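Revision sheet: structure tokens.
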Amino acid sequence: MTRPRIAIIGAGLAGVTLARRLDQHAEVLVLEKSRGTGGRMATRHKDGVSFDHGAQYFTIRDAGFHALVEPALDEGVIETWSTPVHHLTATGALEQREDRSPRFVAVPGMSRLVKWLARPLKVQFETRAIALEGKVGDWKLDCDHGNVEGRFDWVVSTAPAPQTASLLPLDPADQEALEGVRMNGCFTLMLQMKPDIDLPFAAAQVSHPILGWIAHNNTKPGRETGNHLVVHANNRWSDANLEEPPEQVQARMIGALEALLPVVRNALIAPPVLHRWRYANVETPLGKPFLLDMDRHLAACGDWCLGNRVEAAFQSANALADALLLQMETA
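Predicted:
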């Protein structure tokens, strides 16, 4: 019996989780528009310095997710980040948050985990799908970057909800459901500081008109020595400024940081780096684990189905894998 051919759009945690589950039962190709795996579990490398500029950490609560990452923990691919997280107000008041669950990070950067999970998979990088052609069970992917050979029985998108909505010709009910998903943007500022700068915390959630998170990246296990800050703008401010010139966004974020933490003034030893995440966080999730169009052989999953946590991407993909494997068994 010929194994079905499945294209999975996106090599973040959701796409790689799904591909691992289906790989023994189908011919699976993962397509990724960037040069590496990870999605928002991302690490930026510049001049020998690294910054986790997407997801800052993750928790492990789901039994299935624990089973997936336990070998990574045993091999040292992930480790506990035991440094306390604080809450910082706009006036500079600081208090330590209660830790409800251990926080984990990949080593030496957040992108390592998905890269490690994707080792046995066929992943085609720098390939951006923009449309589908063909018919049910005979889909062809059109790309404006890269090229995909052949046709597919199934196409699954793990891209953010707005991109999935524009890519997949789903039925009207599913399209309407996708349009109800709301995702927020986020700007990340990466700063290499003088080594003698001493912050009163290693990581803090920030209640501020502009800023939302500040972390000393080097307090995470397995990082290089130095004084490297990752600063996130809050989602509300980011959404309002998504199309503003990057230089203006960067200047306002640095100004806000210096006003909040005067110790960082005149402390840069390298040019700052700004990254814009258009779809960073989930404000209104789909409310169910996945979308599955059995008639069209199309599906979608991702953290946007269930919520903001890294673990939500796994849960969504794992649930979709169960449904697709059941369909393959009964086909």
